[in-house]
Amino acid sequence: xxxxxxxxxxxxxxxxxxxxxxxxxxxxxxxxxxxxxxxxxxxxxxxxxxxxxxxxxxxxxxxxxxxxxxxxxxxxxxxxxxxxxxxxxxxxxxxxxxxxxxxxxxxxxxxxxxxxxxxxxxxxxxxxxxxxxxxxxxxxxxxxxxxxxxxxxxxxxxxxxxxxxxxxxxxxxxxxxxxxxxxxxxxxxxxxxxxxxxxxxxxxxxxxxxxxxxxxxxxxxxxxxxxxxxxxxxxxxxxxxxxxxxxxxxxxxxxxxxxxxxxxxxxxxxxxxxxxxxxxxxxxxxxxxxxxxxxxxxxxxxxxxxxxxxxxxxxxxxxxxxxxxxxxxxxxxxxxxxxxxxxxxxxxxxxxxxxxxxxxxxxxxxxxxxxxxxxxxxxxxxxxxxxxxxxxxxxxxxxxxxxxxxxxxxxxxx
Length: 414
Fold this sequence. Notes:
- By secondary structure, the chain is of the alpha+beta class.
- The protein has helices at 53-82, 90-119, 125-159, 168-192, 222-256, 265-304, 314-326, 328-339, 341-353, 364-368, 372-380, 390-394, 404-413; strands spanning 13-17, 23-29, 34-35, 44-45, 193-199, 205-211.
- The strands form two sheets. Strands 1, 2, 3 and 4 form a four-stranded antiparallel beta sheet that branches.
- It is globular, with a radius of gyration of 30 Å.
- This is G-protein coupled receptors family 1 profile domain-containing protein.
- InterPro entries: GPCR_Rhodpsn, GPCR_Rhodpsn_7TM, Neurokn_rcpt.
């Protein structure tokens, strides 16, 4: 599905020069020894998709900026959680897993696919053709399944607060299952992607990376079509529907229900904390849905209207769609920094330590824990409702109840 843009039909075709001094591609199925669509004069105009240099520079800047922000941001998120014990919660462990998947797709896939789409040539070899496409599906699947796991964990924690929470071992087990299932989904890319040399009529040679399915060439294979449909359903529509349900129920529980009786300050703080986490995750899911929707719509359109790929500006349209989908990996760290104070302090500490802002850095306890003054104020807040303070009940009482002086006085009175 990631290679629909560039014509990558390999050895099973012949080329011929057209009357307008361009050249055409005649598709031939070598497996069944026949021309496609049972028509021997079926030809399709070939487009080289080479953009002017200034537009290539513009797209390169956009993709390079996205890769840098996504890679650095996700690595900082991993560092914040793993280097600070106070940040090691179940939700944050899942966020680390999400950051690992996003960092993988930005470093191991986006740059190479973008180069291929921009130049219509694959210079990275046969092995990396397979590995790059394997990493693409692996990381995308791991990201969406991690988001789904977070939504289920939040749902159970809020809707069934008396149930025991996930432990470290269970969290690691779920994470391992996510990667195993994602690897299974991605295995066809590792098996069927291959490379070939494309000899063009003008004498140039183009190296192509494309999937060669058992039942035919790419875009003509029913196996490829149903695989792409299954991938789209399993990694987009079903997870989005599930997360919409879970977060809707959680939202009604946190914002719609009214508690009976008077709530303590600790209970109110607990509800506010849960609301902040749920808000952050809802934003993450919405951004994911928006970023990937055009990509899946493009796949559906090109599946039923293949001639769309011959549109004059289809390369830049697809580059925009692909950039939007891949840019999802750089938004999550920005959302964490924006909506979570501990992650925000962690980012500040990281950049201060790197010297980006100068200065001597932040103290780790101040960056990731609750300040002592904040804790003391919270401990005093319940008693301030009636105008008293804990200091008044402890500091100015000379002889607390049960002290030896009071016991002696009681004996005298008796």
